[in-house]
């Protein structure tokens, strides 16, 4: 598969039609406000068919202006399939694939017995071509391309498509060149529309309110599963679908994704909760850390250091700044406080943040070396923790959107160790 750099792709598509571009949130946009512990109900709406169609037009415009010109892009099950078509589908050994041609309607190839389910969620019209269990889906795909006048040419491959699918197409026809479609998909999904921002706002609201509710219900003797169950229950009541509820207590908080050993709440316990939910497909990701009972001076000092690290990342977020420079700024501060250096423990072993949208982790990344320039409409987490193996860890995490005037968090930030939510 021939690679193509994201930078070269973006440069080659600079002349794409403005009418096909996804809308960039205006500087003055106001994100919706939600009241505490009130279910979302009908205050949020899923992405409309018109927006799905606009996404297809943007992808087709980028294909037409790419270098080399793409004749089509192949999209497999997952969030990109939903992004472009509205189809929600899980990966399996049975091939379901959307083909977006540079011109014309979408074509979807899927098992015959799944056709009704695929048509139920397909938001953009197009041609559905079923294949039966004894048939070769690759032959259906190639025949569909030929019927669209694409008997040969360059096919972009969405980055999560598995190798056996591309290999199957090569066995049916040698007339196609396969090129990574990562840059094309990224160019479409990187900047969030106003409708996407509203759903991200709603999802983060639900998670913060679930954390707020649980914060007041922590009791001595509870374990991580008890607290996670409370978060999930509250999330559902507020209208979100729980994605993850990571609860790290005591020494387990020193390991960013936890420990297998059971920990319980006791006086002086660190409680680190990293939780997320989904609202109409869009994700939240919020972390809060506090102490049950009386906090030690060391716990307070490290909490305040992490709070300052989060503020430094926000301060470094400026239009045009490379995403990785936010991580660099935090690490310089942490090293001045004696942590690290770089990604070493005790200190910050993971990136400062990640993009967020339909995926909980998606490009771009707030990590050293990511040169993606910040633009209005990009969304990220900001989560520079500090972890001390054998003792404890602290992480504060909030999601935010880049605007023309700077970063805008979706939810209020933690004020202090005593007011973490």
Notes on the structure:
The protein is an alpha+beta fold. Helix content is 32%, strand content 20%. The strands form five sheets. It has a six-stranded mixed β-sheet, with helices on both faces. Strands 7, 8, 9 and 10 form a four-stranded antiparallel β-sheet that branches. Helix 8 packs across helix 9 (224-238) and helix 10 (297-316) runs antiparallel to helix 11 (324-336). The relative contact order is 0.12.
The order of strands across the largest sheet is 4-3-2-1-5-6
Order of helices and strands: HHEHEEHEHEHEHHHEEEEHHEEEEEEE
- The coarse overall form would be elongated
Range of helix content: 25-40%
- What does the largest sheet look like? 6 strands, mixed
Question: Which strand-content bin applies to the residues?
Answer: 15-25%
Average predicted local confidence, pLDDT? 92
Number of strands: 17
- Total helical segments: 11
Structural class: alpha+beta
Report the end-to-end length measured between terminal Cα atoms.
Answer: 48 Å
Q: Uncertain segments of ≥5 residues (pLDDT<50)?
A: 2-30
Rg value: 23 Å
Question: Which properties best describe this structure?
Answer:
11 helices; six-stranded mixed sheet; 421 residues; alpha+beta
Give a short summary of the structure.
The protein is an alpha+beta fold and 421 residues long. The chain has eleven helices and 17 strands.
Topology of this protein?
Blueprint: H1 6-12, H2 49-64, E1 72-75, H3 79-85, E2 97-101, E3 107-111, H4 115-121, E4 127-131, H5 137-147, E5 153-157, H6 163-172, E6 176-180, H7 182-189, H8 194-215, H9 224-238, E7 241-249, E8 269-279, E9 282-283, E10 286-292, H10 297-316, H11 324-336, E11 353-355, E12 362-366, E13 379-382, E14 386-388, E15 392-394, E16 398-403, E17 406-409
Parallel strand pairs: 1-5, 3-4, 5-6
Antiparallel strand pairs: 1-2, 2-3, 7-8, 8-9, 8-10, 11-12, 13-16, 14-15, 16-17
Helix pairs in contact: 1-7, 2-7, 5-6, 8-9, 10-11
């Amino acid at each position: 598969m021939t690679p193509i750099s994201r930078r070269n792709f973006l440069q080659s598509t600079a002349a794409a039609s403005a009418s096909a571009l996804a809308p960039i949130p205006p500087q003055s946009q106001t994100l919706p406000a939600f009241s505490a512990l009130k279910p979302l109900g009908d205050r949020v709406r899923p992405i409309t068919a018109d927006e799905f169609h606009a996404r297809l037009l943007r992808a087709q415009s980028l294909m037409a202006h790419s270098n080399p010109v793409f004749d089509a892009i192949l999209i497999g099950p997952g969030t990109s399939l939903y992004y472009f078509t509205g189809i929600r589908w899980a990966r399996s050994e049975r091939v379901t694939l959307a083909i977006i041609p540079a011109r014309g309607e979408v074509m979807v190839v899927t098992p015959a017995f799944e056709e009704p389910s695929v048509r139920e969620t397909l938001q953009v019209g197009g041609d559905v071509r079923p294949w039966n269990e004894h048939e070769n889906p690759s032959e259906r795909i190639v025949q569909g391309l030929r019927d669209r006048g694409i008997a040969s040419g360059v096919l972009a491959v969405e980055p999560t498509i598995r190798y056996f699918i591309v290999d199957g197409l090569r066995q049916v026809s040698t007339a196609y060149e396969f090129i990574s479609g990562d840059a094309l998909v990224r160019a479409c999904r990187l900047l969030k529309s106003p409708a996407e921002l509203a759903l991200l706002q709603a999802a983060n609201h639900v998670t913060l309110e679930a954390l707020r509710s649980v914060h007041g219900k922590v009791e001595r003797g509870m374990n991580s599963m008890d607290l996670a169950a409370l978060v999930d229950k509250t999330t559902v009541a507020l209208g979100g679908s729980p994605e993850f509820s990571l609860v790290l207590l005591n020494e387990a908080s020193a390991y960013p994704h936890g420990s297998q050993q059971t920990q319980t709440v006791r006086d002086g316990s660190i409680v680190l909760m990293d939780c997320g939910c989904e609202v109409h497909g869009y994700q939240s990701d919020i972390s809060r850390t506090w102490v049950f009972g009386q906090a030690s001076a060391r716990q307070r000092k490290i909490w305040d250091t992490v709070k300052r690290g989060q503020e430094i990342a926000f301060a470094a977020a400026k239009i045009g700044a490379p995403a990785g420079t936010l991580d660099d700024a935090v690490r310089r501060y942490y090293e001045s406080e004696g942590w690290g250096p770089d990604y070493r423990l005790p200190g910050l072993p993971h990136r400062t943040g990640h993009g967020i949208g339909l995926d909980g982790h998606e490009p771009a990344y707030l990590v050293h070396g990511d040169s993606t320039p910040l633009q209005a409409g990009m969304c990220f987490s900001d989560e520079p923790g500090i972890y001390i193996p054998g003792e404890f860890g602290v992480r504060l995490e909030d999601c935010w959107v880049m605007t023309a005037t700077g970063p805008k968090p979706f939810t209020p930030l933690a004020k202090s160790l005593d007011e973490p939510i």
